[in-house]
Amino acid sequence: MNIQSLLSTLTIEEKAGQLLQLAPFFFIKDLKVEVAGALRALDLSEADIFLAGSVLGIHDAKEMIAVQKKYLQRSRHKIPLMFMADVIHGYETIFPIPIALASSFHPDLAKKAARIAALEAQTAGIHVTFAPMVDVSRDPRWGRVMEGFGEDAYLASCFSRASVEGFQHDGIGKEGNLAACVKHFAAYGAPEAGRDYNTVDMSMHTFYNHYAPPYQAGIKAGAHLVMTAFNTFNGIPATVHQGLLRDILRGQMGFDGVVITDYDALQQVITHGVASELKDVARLAIEAGVDIEMASTAYFRYLKTLIDEGVIPLALLDEAVLRILTLKEKLGLFDNPFKGADALKATQRVRHPDHLATSERIARECTVLLKNDHQVLPLDKTRSIALIGPYVNESSTNGNWSWHGDHRLNETLHHAFARKGHDIVMAKTGNQATDYDRQDIDTLKQADVIIVCAGEQARQSGEARSRTRLDLPDGQETLIKMAKATGKPVVVLLFCGRPLVLKEILKADAVMLCWFLGSRAASAIVDLVNGTFNPSGRLPMTFPQNEGQIPIYYNHLNTGRPYRDERNEYVSKYLDVSNDPQLSFGHGLSYARFNYEDMRLDKEVMAINETLTITVTVTNDSQQAGHEVIQLYIRDLVSLPVRPVKELKGFQKVWFDPAETKSIVFELKAKDLSAFDQHGKPQIEPGTFDVFVGGGSNTTLSRRFVLKDVGIK
Ligand code: GLC
Prior knowledge:
Bound molecules: alpha-D-glucopyranose
Largest sheet: 8 strands, parallel
Helix content: 25-40%
Oligomer: single chain
Number of helices: 20
Structural class: alpha/beta
CATH architecture of the largest domain: Alpha-Beta Barrel
CATH class of the largest domain: Alpha Beta
CATH topology of the largest domain: TIM Barrel
Strand order of the largest sheet: 9-6-5-4-3-2-1-10
């Protein structure tokens, strides 16, 4: 298709229509759709509707085909609709929520999950997914931490790249592949007070070093779309922010794909207070380089007028239409507007046993063993168990943003423990101790181990799900007290979409963080509890001692008065709690024990064009096989601006047989030691660095080297 010549045949109304994105029920009134919230009464005529360029929120091959057919029959220009949806961590086979995927420290798993999600979603007729969400966040009060990859830009960048590669696979023109949409640009994960949609204000130095890299990684991986964020960024709504969108996103980051707003975001620019009329919003947005307007009609209503009045040049509209038509061309829609949509294939493909098996395998690697006193776990099947708590017979383990995964098809923990041959003396759902009577307590005392299946509900994290208190809801902490009072070993299986304040939870003997692990969560969890598999997840986000510490994150600055010990009064500390987190970034236990020794650098002085090789010997000092996540951090001891006390610069997830020793090698180049200045330019400051290696960010195993500012011949 010759896009330029197609563009020249379009009227201005038809061009403006390509920028309009509507829900499917505008085309077929009785369609069942999941588009969140009621689309504003966008009093559009029939004629208007058949000018739209794309549709969001359809999830059924037959419906997609019906809408596309009706549209192509009615539209003059016959340009096919593009169909977009939120396929975040699975389509009907649901994978662990993204923060759990990040816990695997194994980006290839995210790639596999995205690949399968695309295969399933494409047969439903979807062309574009609004994923990956790569907003870094240092604030667990924010509900959407469940949807991102944690607090560290390096780790989130690895998962951003892997997800885009998984969704887009071997090209978006092929069936079974989705165009990826990196979101939300920018810094949506840093709302003040952790309250969703709230103000974001940060230095450009912080932005470039801690929030920008995962967007850049997704763009470099070839993402075809970027979605703008709801929040203001340093005083300007991101969705009309020329500095962010034209200068940084398209200029510095080199993004030449389609920019789409978030849901109704242009209408909200008025609410932000930047403009009093939608016509002005349309001008601001098109000048900022926004292409598709999701679920509002600023563009559709006013672009023609703005052009007729000479307020904006036609060229701005043409460039947006060109990007949209180019994306449709790359998707192959001009050749086949129904690309991949196949109701029969969809029934055969979704929740395919192979997909479910992959989801289970991934879930096992996303689970984090937080505590395991006296080696309570693994639990062999000869030891009887009692199951209490809200998740005993609960199947909703998919987590938020899993529209199509029917959680009613998921196995419960009770069923999985029984199916796998555990001796269950009691399995009773309850939220708090008062749900268990005297007889229950007596029965509990008959069990060898009590397992408390507890946590947040799936809808307590996700969009518009911020919390100020991060404790176990509904009085579930009384369950742990009740179980502990029996004198029996207590294990907590913890479901949540964010770091929680673990105070009571950590009084249990063992705690396994199960996040929301998707369609095969229960089976994966039971196999980890009984030692069939060894947990290997690590925390992608710091767990605070309490909400008062937030924001708390591992890659913090030293300050001029760091806390060292109680003798120093005038230092950076609290009167009522230590500065330490409850659990650190990178933390996670195993049934195996890993020893690190003999860390060596191949040079103590590194020229600017040399490679530093770091070697460390790691031994599995146990009879239990398993993965270790070997993490590499640096610290630039003297720099301007100052650098964090630790920065993750590498990790390797390595399998060890029992008693196996391996020599692990990392390489660092000068560019790995750089930081961005306030203009987004990488800066390398020669000088002294420490490099750390270990099983978590609190490792102290380190060596020192000097980076010289000269090259060697
Ligand atoms: C929501 C979310 C965005 C999602 C979009 C479409 O408000 O912010 O992430 O892709 O609307 O559902």
